[in-house]
Amino acid sequence: MIPDIGHYALMIALLVASLQAILPLAGLSGNNEKLFAFATPMARLQSVLIIIAFIILDYSFYVNDFSVMYVANTSNSNLPLIFRLAAVWGGHEGSILFWVAILAIWTLAVTFFAKELPLRFRSTLIAVMGLITAGFLLFILMTSNPFERLDIIPFDGRDLNPLLQDPGMVFHPPLLYMGYVGFSVAFAFAIAALLDGRLDVTWARWTRPWTTAAWVFLTLGIALGSRWAYYELGWGGWWFWDAVENASFMPWLIGTALIHSLAVTEKRDAFKSWTVLLSICAFSLSLLGTFIVRSGVLTSVHAFAIDPSRGLFILVFLALVIGGALLLFALRAPSIGLGEKFDLLSRETLLLSNNVVLFTATGAVLLGTLYPLVIDAMGLGKISVGPPYFDVVFVAIMVPGVFLMGIGPIARWKKATVPELTDKLKWASVVSIVSALLVPSVMGKFTPMIFVGLLMAFWVMSSVWVSVSTRLKAIPTGTLRQKFKSFGPAFNGMLLAHFGLAVFIVGVTMVKGYEQESDIIIKKGEIKLINGYAFRFEGIKPIRGANYVAKQGQFYVSKDGKPVTLLTPEKRLYLAQRVVMTEASISINPVRDIYVSLGEELEGDQKGMWSVRVYFKPFVQWIWMGCLLMGLGGILTIVDKRYRLKKKTSKATA
Amino acid sequence: MKLKALVPLLLFIVLLVFLGKGLFLNPREVPSPLIGKPAPAFTAPILGDATKLFSSADMKGRVWMLNMWASWCAACRVEHQLLVEMLEHGLPIYGLAYKDIEKDALAVLEKIGNPYVITASDADGRIGIDYGVYGVPETYIIDKAGIIRYKQIGPIIPADLHEKILPLLKELEA
Questions:
Q1: Looking at CA atoms only, how far is residue B111 from chain A in angstroms?
Q2: B34-173 maps to CATH 3.40.30.10
Q3: What tens digit of pLDDT does each residue of A551-590 get?
């Protein structure tokens, strides 16, 4: 009974969302305010209905209602509660419902915070979001109903894929989806601007915190997913250039370009067409990502159920939404215009070239991701494009981008001069070259890639320092704390995010350059010396979890006679699906991780011997620390009072 | 309208064409290395009567289908009804219960019908490994000489049956 209510809620929501889309758009030509007035209440009603449906589905997981096919397929009564609740986004139908539920949350938020926008513009924006919602609801109801019931109720569920039974599953998908779907606000904004034929600076200011918020969610979501893969997949990798990873990374790259482009549009009234195009692209890539993941056109470690009819639906939807948006762009972008002019050497130019770099990088990732598909579609065979392509191409494109990133924040708006820039950055370049040579000599190994990586990281760090010290000098009085406060959170946030990227580059460079991997065979009581650490194997302990049994290895690690840690990697057998999973054990520390993964027990006369893989990963945690700092930087810029103060003044004048 | 503004749309249309074509290709349809090779021989206990054994060697001289399935496999239910109909039309399908518990497998057959002439049990999945199974259901067509001629990955749908399986069986029987 209760699941049926969820199903009905979705049907009504589809009707309401259609009205939310059609009525305000119909009012555009005659400027009909009565029709505009429908947008907000319809949006709120529809959002609440979707959220109710989502809660009902999660409730079905909570009470183990296996009469719901989706619950029976992705959950099990022995699954711990927290994973049962997260299992709601563990399969196709639930993920799509979750996608729309997140869209409902963003829609609700927009209806509450968009009051300062003119009625016509606000209504168009909400109508566009309604159009997207209606499309996805139609998709759910036609091809992917999560509330479908089973005639024969199974005794127990098939259980959640053991790979997904991890705290990462609780946080990674929600963050990622908040990011993906959050770009719909910028998209709707761009469409509304195109329909109106103009782009106002105040609108750009209004969109900025929304876009940054989506970007922050996406940043943290991707970072969390990467960290999850690192400890869960058991081979110590943190990024695989997998199709589904790329699907989340492309909107991130374009989103990064977009937040920079929006900054220019707001502050200098320039880059208008760019901003609109990037807004369309960011969300289009989110939709494309959904298509790639949900249609199974590409193979991936994120393997899900495949159904061509679903793929076809999303493809048609993509064609209408993205094709329509780009057609509108082709027709209307010239009327929006480019905006203010600027000199060849200026902060605008540097930001523009940075955008070009990010755009190109996205293109390279897109090319690599779709290349196997294109080759297959042309009947040329089956190939796969892997890290060798992505690593080389991506790094080659990004290096100049990171170089420009060091100069950008120091250059003046509109017009900068070479002598001024070289004067400000001469020490930064000396410091970064010296440091990039010094670190490899301490580590005892030098390669050109290590040098380039470290050079870029130190370059960004020292440029951040130059920005700070220039500004500090400009304020003669006050404590350091007061001075930083006077910069404003937006500026500090930008610096923090740039610094975060530098930290990230340090992590990537050090791991790629200095990681060590050893395969050992060890028996109980034996001690092996690896990289100066002694590993003593104290045998295997049987463990019983809620829905699995495990063999747990006991490794005492010590260095120079001093105990470091106890590592306990496991081999788990999940009972419902009879799947064996490797659970790595990691000793974490800011400058190195020790990562141990349990292999197999040898057979025959070598019984009692275990194969074990040990990794040393220097500075690997910096990768995720860097992402965290980028995210925090983004959050700082959102809290900047500028966005709220203007609201008040505009109200006062209205 | 400037031509430059049309570029993103044109690029997108090219992309759409390839995505559309891609939908009708199956990236997981890796040609099986076993096609054209002798089917790995196995002998396994018969489900429901562990005292008897089924041996692939018994099938020499006959064209037969080997369907790997499991009671825990939801995708197997998709093709189940079609398999039952195939049996009604006299197509001999031999089942292999892959990594399954005997009583679960028997319960399913009792509840939704048994399409198999004989079902053998592969409780530890060893036979599955020999055949390179990476997801049930999978179906093999083996000819009179014991050579694998066809491998279906995933559930059989009516189109597969009519366009691929039936013509092949006809050809092999001839």
A1: 9
A2: yes
A3: 999 999 999 989 999 999 999 988 877 778 888 999 999 9
Tell me which residue of A613, A554, A549, A611 sits closest to A581, measured CA to CA: A549
CB B147 within 8 A of CB B174: no
Measured CA to CA, the distance from residue A510 to residue A611 in angstroms comes to 27
Choice between B73 and A99, residue whose per-residue pLDDT is larger? A99
Rounded alpha-carbon distances, angstroms, from residue B144 to A642, B90, B172:
80, 17, 8
Q: Hey, which residues does A631 pair with through a beta bridge? A: none
Model-wide pTM > 0.90: no
For the cut 50, the answer to whether the pLDDT of residue A180 exceeds it is yes
Asked whether residue A309 carries a pLDDT value surpassing 70, the answer given is: yes
- A231 is written with which tokens? 């400890």
User: What DSSP string describes A438-477?
Assistant: HHHHHHT---HHHHHHHHHHHHHHHHHHHHHHHHHHH--S
Q: A247 at the B interface (CB within 8 A)?
A: no
Token code pair at residue A163? 């790979």
- Domain stops at, among A116, A146, A161: A161
* Contact (CB<8Å) B27/A319: no
Structure confidence at residue A297 as a pLDDT band (50, 70, 90)? low
Which residues form the domain of A42?
1-161
What confidence category does residue A140 fall into, taking pLDDT thresholds of 50, 70 and 90? very high
Residue A171 falls inside a structural domain:
no
Domain limits, chain B? 34-173
Among residues A41, A45, A48, the alpha carbon closest in space to that of A24 is found at A41
Domain end (from A161, A177, A212): A161
Q: Is the dihedral of CA A45, A51, A55, A58 positive or negative?
A: positive
pLDDT average, residue stretch A331-352? 81
User: Does residue A525 lie in a domain region?
Assistant: yes
Q: Alpha-carbon distance B69 to B135, whole Å?
A: 9
Q: Tell me if the bond preceding B40 is cis, omega within 30° of 0.
A: no
Give the whole-angstrom CA distance, residue A90 versus residue A96.
Answer: 10
A82 touching B (Cβ < 8 Å):
no
CA–CA distance, A300 with B28 (Å, rounded to integer) = 10
Sequence-distant (6+) residues with CB within 8 A of A479 are none
Distance from CA of A325 to the nearest CA of B (A): 9
Q: What is the per-residue pLDDT across A471-486, written as a single tens digit (0 to 9) for each?
A: 888 887 778 788 777 7
Number of structural domains found in chain A: 2
* Distance of residue B61 Cα from the nearest chain A Cα, in angstroms: 35
Q: Within a domain: residue A301?
A: no
Test mutation, A371, A376, A384, chain B, max B CBs within 10 A? A376
Q: Where are the beta strands (DSSP E) in chain B?
A: 43-46, 49-55, 64-69, 93-98, 119-122, 138-142, 148-153
3-state helix, strand, coil in chain A (%, to 5): 65, 10, 20
